[in-house]
Amino acid sequence: MSSVVVQPADAIGEWSLTQRNLHRLLTAYLRFYQGAHWEHSTVPAEGAAILVCNHVSVLDPLLLVASNQRVVSFLVAREYYDNPLMRQLLEQTYSIPVRRDRRDVRALLQARHVLEEGRVLGIFPEGGINRSETRKGVAWLVRESAAPVVPAHVGGARQAASDLQTWLRRQHPLLRYGVPLHFHRDADAAEVMGATMSAIATLA
């Protein structure tokens, strides 16, 4: 007996009731509690895309999700999956747990699969909040998929002593989007990362 393969939802018209309600609640929280603002997303309406953003607080992925009408699947630190509530929320975006203590090849292969399915992958290239080192996973995924890179920048938000304190502290974050970047599959990793980080910096 052949099993039926269910494709993950992508555009808003495909979302489940749970995904729609979570998106509404998230948008309301950011708009009315956090006083957040965001520009119109430049993520393509269809097809694979790599959404790359700076990382200043745990509000960043929430802003990216709320500002898009497509599901954004993130590479997320594995420790967040240890929290049952967080795990349920992350599973609604088909996010991928990743180990930060070493190069997680399995996570990168799963990320490539997201792009092969023509979906949106969200990445914070610093690998953590307010880190200065950038990782080259973005360049590898560009080479493997030829997907456009969409730069984004979050300003006006800060990480508190804990995630809970950050969610409760009222801030006024601003999310800005840049023009999608298109690279040749053979582009050098330094070229991809340099152009991407420069595009993010110009949005500050």
From TrEMBL:
Keyword set, alphabetical order: Acyltransferase, Transferase
EC number annotated for this UniProt entry: 2.3.1.-
Every Phospholipid/glycerol acyltransferase domain range: 49-157
GO biological process assignments: phosphatidic acid biosynthetic process
UniProt xrefs under SUPFAM superfamilies: Glycerol-3-phosphate (1)-acyltransferase
GO molecular function terms noted in the UniProt entry: 1-acylglycerol-3-phosphate O-acyltransferase activity
Hydrolase recorded as keyword: no
Classification via CDD domains: LPLAT_AGPAT-like
UniProt pathway: Lipid metabolism
Name of the protein described by the UniProt record: 1-acyl-sn-glycerol-3-phosphate acyltransferase
Organism expressing this protein natively: Acidithiobacillus thiooxidans ATCC 19377
